[in-house]
């Protein structure tokens, strides 16, 4: 199948792929005992720099113009100016600080940098992002701005990529992304998630697959394979993969039972769809909250090592 987007005619699928990191992602000011695992980001970056340092690059912050392609201007101003109300801050799950604004803006920018590389060369990963709980007018669940939604808007504006598929495999439904694109015929949102987990009010994705607590590798992969047939049939110009690893057994916020081997098989299924379609794929980090954080770091790192293995040496 020939590439469908106007900017992907020269896909290299080769050594020009990049792993993008977000500067100072660890610098967020959080109170002692906060459950968000900031420490994992530097550890993931450190491992990937040792393994593939020549592929690692720094992303620039998103501009206000980029953010307002998706988010309401009033919300963007409230985040930047520190004028979010008490309930909005509580829903977000982070206290407001200048470091929060910096991190949120750079997190979107990292996904935009990954998009730019993938649009020209076939594949790229952002070692943060996947902030799928952010809506047009609010943030939720540790997500300030929706990096994938902004990247889809930028893909249309700058890269000639009209049709996008979002494959969201975080354990929590991508509710913000679903709401932003509900009714958009050129965006297919797939979310495989735990039925009885956050968010407790689910939005409507193009395809929602709710799975039970304790879901194991085989059940999960069977559901994923069937769902990816719909993604492939949609024939997108670009695939965004929210590769959260909070489906891993032992995750504090997940309650599923996937193994590291199951995650590897999961990734292979998603990567195979992009490869068959010969369209760009952008991978973002998503959630991972292991009781043993080493397990989450191992799982996240494995996603990007597999991305490099799958696409770095692929002939054009």
Features:
eight-stranded parallel beta sheet, 316 residues, 10 helices, 8 strands, Arginase, Chain A
Structure report:
The protein is globular, with a radius of gyration of 18 Å. Helix content is 42%, strand content 12%. Helix 8 runs parallel beside helix 9 (260-277). It has one domain: Arginase, Chain A (3-Layer(aba) Sandwich), CATH 3.40.800.20. Mean pLDDT is 92; it is low at 1-10. It has helices at residues 39-52, 64-67, 73-81, 86-92, 98-121, 147-159, 175-181, 217-234, 260-277, 293-311; strands spanning 18-21, 56-58, 123-126, 164-168, 187-194, 207-211, 238-242, 281-284. It is of the alpha/beta class. The chain contains ten helices and eight strands. Strands 2-1-3-8-7-4-5-6 form an eight-stranded parallel β-sheet, sandwiched between helices.
Describe the SSE topology:
Blueprint: E1 18-21, H1 39-52, E2 56-58, H2 64-67, H3 73-81, H4 86-92, H5 98-121, E3 123-126, H6 147-159, E4 164-168, H7 175-181, E5 187-194, E6 207-211, H8 217-234, E7 238-242, H9 260-277, E8 281-284, H10 293-311
Parallel strand pairs: 1-2, 1-3, 3-8, 4-5, 4-7, 5-6, 7-8
Helix pairs in contact: 1-10, 5-6, 8-9, 9-10
Beta-strand percent range: 5-15%
Low-confidence stretches: 1-10
- In CATH terms, the superfamily is Histone deacetylase domain
Q: What is the share of helical residues?
A: 40-55%
Shape: globular
CATH class: Alpha Beta
pLDDT averaged residue by residue: 92
Number of domains: 1
Main sheet characteristics: 8 strands, parallel
